[in-house]
Write a structure and sequence with these properties.
By secondary structure, the chain is an alpha+beta fold. It has 24 helices and 22 strands. It is globular and about 75 Å long. The structure holds 2-(butylsulfanyl)adenosine (IVH). 2-(butylsulfanyl)adenosine binds next to strand 3, strand 8 and strand 11.
Length: 665
């Protein structure tokens, strides 16, 4: 790869990772499996390690948490740690050997199913329930007491009078989950990806009346902080104590003394996973005697007295019925496998993306093949391989189109990304997708303008292009069947309101290939106006952080197309913002460049960046010689190490920056 290809790849990966972080942590609605996410991260880390001089956005530093900054947050009295994972029983045995050596004897183990739900922490004081908090970032959780108390069978009082934190997992029973998703689909609401996300989404609902309709349940299995002496000496006793105090616990735990019963328990649990009404994704193996926990201690992330044996992803076989080729807004063609519906890890799967043509070749897919399907993070299905033993005699390979499946224009291939594109500028599928993109949340955020309405509007001739959105005849819309007056009214307001979006959002909304939200903002800040951007040479474009040859070419190609220029003109005519409004407060930070890493205490990262920009500073997305200041929050990642190594970057805290700005007021 050339340097600019590397830079482009890094940018594409970073934008993807950032999007998946948001989907996973903030929206509880992931689109890819944990495994696929790990692959993206791995690729980005490898590229960063091999090319330390290429500036990289710091998506890998972002610490995932479920905290909503607007909610009431309460610090945990003892950290909510996570567990080290083992992916084979051999690894668990190796861990057992290691701690046995350290303890000078083989400790008994308590084995429990690993509940795949949403972690919860309860605090009791003087025997009374005080509050329930989410895991949050491990140190601070979000207060969800009111919603939590809708769960049945939660004791409000316990006989233990000292302060105590009691911990467990909230889950959404699978049968109820399937029924709820079915109802959501019928109401054209987005279904939840899996029971875990449904539990997370439900416990955080703002409207308690809605929570009451969600049949949440919980299991408890451990404690956090305890004042004074604990009323139990082992994990087994702890579970009995929880049960006697009225907390629901999983009845599947087992104290084991030898390897054979360890293996038996893990195998039995793995076989049982499809029969329970809650998802389990492994077995938690804990040293039973609690006194030994203190002796073994913890690493910074997890205790040494426990390990999670993770099951292999559930795997099913099913029939490949056909392959659909879908056209995206940039013309990218994505093949999707249409499958004989099969139930796997919490939902019924009938489609699975194949990403690109190369994937079909790699799998060697033939018509009528039986394929092996997994859902590793219990999220998005993935075809693992073909079961060649079941291939039908004379089956033909899946044929790959050489024209667009919608408009039949020839396809062109972009080698770096291994993607085929429809080459037409007038493809109706591209038009529909680009209108959806224009209206999407990170773009113009026009609520109510989704796939269904867009295709309806195009079909009925209400709109023919993006620009038409601003001149819709709503009298006509109100006459359409199945579109209520109220939703037409809301849509009209949402469209009107979108005109207030700043230039960077408009730029992103245009849907220029490879221009994600970060690049759009960098371009807007750098060029300030659409005219300056339009006239920029490739050389000038490359001066913008993270814009390499591929992105530069994509931008100049976009503005070389008269149709796009016409669209921009029309949008200007409609009053959309085509110059960047920076709300300039001062020039205090002019000529200085900044990068924020880790999580900040008093302000979100985005707000910090806007603050810096409003004082004339520039934001870079990676550590390099041109970086002046690195602002370090909690849990900084590799950026800090890199900056320290370089030695030229000034490393400051969030408070120091705020004081810098304050002092000058
Ligand atoms: S004990 C120090 N027991 O798995 C953490 N955790 O990956 C002690 N989990 O954060 C946790 N079932 O949310 C424990 N039987 C079980 C569990 C369990 C599920 C969750 C829990 C924890 C995560 C670790």
């Amino acid at each position: 790869m050339t340097k600019s290809q590397i830079r482009s790849r890094i940018q594409i990966l970073s934008a993807e990772i950032e999007r998946h972080n948001r989907l996973y942590y903030a929206e509880a609605s992931p689109e890819i499996t944990d495994y696929e996410y790990d692959l993206l991260v791995q690729e980005l880390q490898d590229l960063q390690a091999k090319h330390p001089l290429v500036q990289t956005p710091d998506v890998l530093d972002k610490v995932g948490d479920d905290l909503d900054k607007s909610a009431k947050n309460i610090p945990h009295k003892q950290r909510m740690a996570s567990l080290a994972n083992a992916y084979s029983i051999q690894e668990v045995i190796a861990w057992w050997d290691k701690i046995s050596l350290e303890l000078g004897g083989r400790p008994e183990l308590c084995l429990e199913p690993k509940i795949d739900g949403f972690g919860i922490n309860l605090f009791f004081s003087s025997g009374k329930f005080q509050y329930a908090t989410t895991r949050g970032d491990g140190a601070v959780g979000e207060d969800v007491s009111e919603n939590f108390l809708t769960l049945p069978q939660i004791p409000r009082t316990i006989s233990f009078q000292n302060d105590i934190e009691i911990r467990g997992e909230i889950y959404f029973p699978i049968q109820d989950f399937l029924a709820m998703n079915e109802a959501r689909r019928q109401n054209e609401e987005k279904p939840f990806a899996n029971p875990r996300n449904a539990a997370a989404g439900s416990i955080k609902l703002k409207d308690i009346a809605l929570v009451k309709d969600r049949p949440l349940r919980a299991f408890f299995y451990t404690t956090g902080y305890i004042a004074g002496t604990a009323p139990f000496g082992s994990q087994d006793e702890l579970l009995r104590w929880l049960k006697d105090s009225g907390f629901p616990i999983s009845d599947k735990h087992y104290v084991c003394v030898d390897e054979d019963s360890l293996i038996d328990f893990c195998t039995q649990m793995e076989a049982l996973r499809n029969e329970l009404d809650y998802d389990i994704d492994g077995v938690v193996v804990k040293v039973d005697n609690l006194a030994l926990h203190n002796r073994l201690g913890s690493t910074s992330k997890s205790p040494k007295w426990a390990i999670a044996y993770k099951f292999k992803p559930d795997e099913k076989e099913t029939l490949l019925k056909s392959v659909d080729f879908q056209v995206g807004r940039t013309g990218a063609i994505t093949p999707v496998a249409i499958l004989e519906p099969v139930y796997i890890s919490g939902s019924t799967v009938s489609r699975s993306t194949l990403h690109n043509f190369d994937e079909i070749r790699r799998l060697d897919l033939h018509e009528g093949d039986t394929i092996r399907l997994i859902k590793s993070g219990e999220i998005i299905p993935k075809i693992l391989a073909v079961n060649f033993d079941k291939r039908l005699a004379g089956a033909e390979p899946i044929s790959l189109p050489d024209t667009c499946p919608v408009c039949h224009s020839p396809l062109s291939r972009e080698e770096e990304a291994a993607i085929e594109y429809c080459s037409s500028a007038d493809c109706p599928a591209q038009l529909a997708r680009s209108i959806e993109h224009f209206a999407s949340r990170d773009a113009m955020d026009i609520t109510g303008l989704g796939t269904f309405i867009v295709s309806r509007f195009l079909k009925e001739g209400i709109i023919e292009s993006v620009a038409d959105l601003y001149g819709i005849d709503f009298a006509k819309v109100k006459e359409l069947e199945r579109i209520g007056e109220k939703s037409a009214q809301n849509l009209q307001e949402a469209i009107q309101k979108s005109k207030d979006k700043n230039f960077d959002r408009v730029l992103f909304a245009l849907g220029i290939r490879h221009v994600g939200t970060v690049t759009a903002r960098n371009l807007a800040v750098h060029f300030q106006t659409i005219e300056a951007l339009e006239q920029a040479t490739n050389q000038e474009l490359s001066e913008v952080p993270e814009v390499g040859d591929i992105i530069a070419k994509s931008i100049s190609d976009y503005f070389a197309n008269p149709k796009n220029l016409r669209l921009v003109q029309e949008l200007i005519g409609q009053g959309l913002k085509m110059s960047y409004e920076s709300e300039q407060e001062s020039e205090l930070l002019a000529e200085l460049s900044f990068l924020v890493t880790g999580s900040l205490k008093s302000i979100s990262r985005k707000d910090m960046e806007s603050l810096i920009i409003s004082h004339g500073g520039k934001i870079l997305s990676g550590v390099s010689k041109s970086l002046d200041y690195l602002i370090v929050g909690e849990k900084p990642g590799s950026k800090l190490t890199k900056a320290e190594k370089l030695g030229t970057v000034k490393i400051i805290s969030e408070d120091e920056l705020l004081t810098m700005l304050e002092r000058d007021k």
